[in-house]
Structure formats: C-alpha cells, structure tokens
C-alpha cells in the first residue's frame, strides 16, 4: 500500500469543524478509534489548522489532474491517495457542510479532472475504498443531513471512495450534551470498526 509501511489499511479522518473541541470532532474521534481497534492505521487532519483556499478555477489542472496551487492542500491530496478508507466529519452550517470542508471539496476539481477527463487512477491502493460521512447539527431537523450528503457524495466519487456509511447526530445543542451521549458515541465507534472489518 502506497505510503503505508505498516501494511495495515489506512483510515483517514478529516475534520471540518472550525472549533478545536467540538461535537463533530468528537464523533470523528470515536469513529476513527473504532477503526484503530479493528486493526487500521489512522490519521486525522484538522482543516482549521491548514492554510489553503477554495478552488480558483484557473484551469491549471486541466492537462495534468494536478492542482497548481502550492498550499497545504498538496498534503491532503497525498493522504487521500494513500487512504484505504475515508471519514469526513463536518458540522452542518446553513444546511451544508462547513466552509472549511466545502473549500477542501471544491479543491477536488483536479481529482475530478484526473479521474473523469484524463482517465487517471485515483489511487494505487487496491480493494474497495469506503467513505463515511459524520455530521452534527444544533437543531432537530434531520433533513439538513440529506442536503449536505449530495456534496459529500460528489467529493467521494471524484476521489475514489464509495459512499459506504454515515453517522448523524441531531439536536447537538440540546440535552444531554453530546460528550455525555455514551450510547451514541459507542455506535460511532462501532461504525469505525465495521468500516475496517467489512
């Protein structure tokens, strides 16, 4: 497996929360913890810590499938190619993923070009590559998860992952606080285990 000397499947978690300690990031940590318990190597990327911008639609990737903008997204591209499975986690902002997450997704334009126009392989990782979407929202209207899911699915398709699972936590601003919802957090961990175990 490219870039993974341990021989274990790499599960990459990407946190789109703008807050350091957040409900969404907690959900991501528990999913990733379950994957680790199932034998995966894990890596978590916090988008809030990176320096990058959204796609500027300059056309620089049209002939190569490679983004010409040299910022922290270059490392994200590398990790996406190395990962066997991917967990995207975002709070719901105005019925969509966070700005941090959307900017990263828009930067997958080069991946779309590479896969669909240039017919390049998206990764050298063999076997099925699965994608999971974990999200939280403050209110009780769960329709917002379905609306955000369309964007996430498009990103997963372009980067070579199959939309495989999801974990949505509504009413995150309600009681009890998400960190005290141990039954739900255990379910998130179990999702991570199943992601790796099959």
Share in β-strands: 15-25%
Could you say what the CATH architecture is? 3-Layer(aba) Sandwich
Quickly count the helices: 6
- Going across the major beta sheet, what is the strand order? 2-1-3-4-5
Number of domains: 1
- The average pLDDT score comes to 95
Q: Report the top-level CATH class.
A: Alpha Beta
**Structural class by helix and strand composition:** alpha/beta
The gyration radius over C-alpha positions equals: 16 Å
CATH superfamily: Flavodoxin domain
Question: What series of H and E elements makes up the topology?
Answer: EHEHEHHEHEH
- List low-confidence stretches: none
According to DSSP, the number of beta strands is 5
Largest sheet: 5 strands, parallel
Overall shape: it is globular
CATH topology: Rossmann fold
Helical amount among residues, as a percent range? 25-40%
Describe this structure as you would to a colleague.
This protein is of the alpha/beta class. It has one domain (10-197): Rossmann fold, CATH 3.40.50.360. Helices cover 38% and strands 17% of the residues. It is built from six helices and five strands, in the order E-H-E-H-E-H-H-E-H-E-H. A five-stranded parallel β-sheet has the order 2-1-3-4-5, sandwiched between helices. Strand 4, helix 5 (143-159) and strand 5 form a beta-alpha-beta unit. Helix 1 crosses helix 6. The longest helix is centred in the C-terminal third of the chain and has 17 residues, at 143-159. It is globular. The model has no long low-confidence stretch (mean pLDDT 95).
């Amino acid at each position: 497996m490219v870039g993974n000397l341990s021989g274990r499947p790499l599960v990459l978690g990407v946190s789109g929360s703008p807050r350091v300690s957040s409900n969404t990031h907690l959900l991501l940590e528990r999913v990733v913890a379950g994957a680790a318990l199932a034998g995966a190597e894990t890596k978590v990327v916090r988008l809030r810590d990176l320096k990058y911008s959204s796609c500027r639609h300059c056309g620089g990737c049209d002939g190569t499938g490679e983004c010409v903008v040299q910022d922290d997204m270059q490392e994200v591209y590398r990790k996406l190619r190395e990962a066997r499975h991917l967990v995207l986690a975002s709070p719901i902002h105005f019925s969509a993923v966070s700005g941090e997450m959307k900017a990263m997704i828009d930067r997958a334009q080069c991946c779309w070009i590479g896969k669909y126009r240039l017919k390049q392989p998206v990764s050298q990782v063999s076997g099925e590559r699965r994608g999971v979407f974990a999200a939280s929202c403050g209110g009780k209207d769960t329709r917002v998860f379905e609306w955000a899911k369309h964007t996430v699915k498009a990103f997963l398709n372009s980067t070579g992952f199959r939309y495989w699972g999801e974990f949505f936590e509504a009413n995150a601003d309600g009681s009890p606080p998400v960190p005290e919802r141990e039954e739900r957090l255990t379910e998130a961990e179990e999702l991570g285990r199943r992601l790796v175990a099959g």
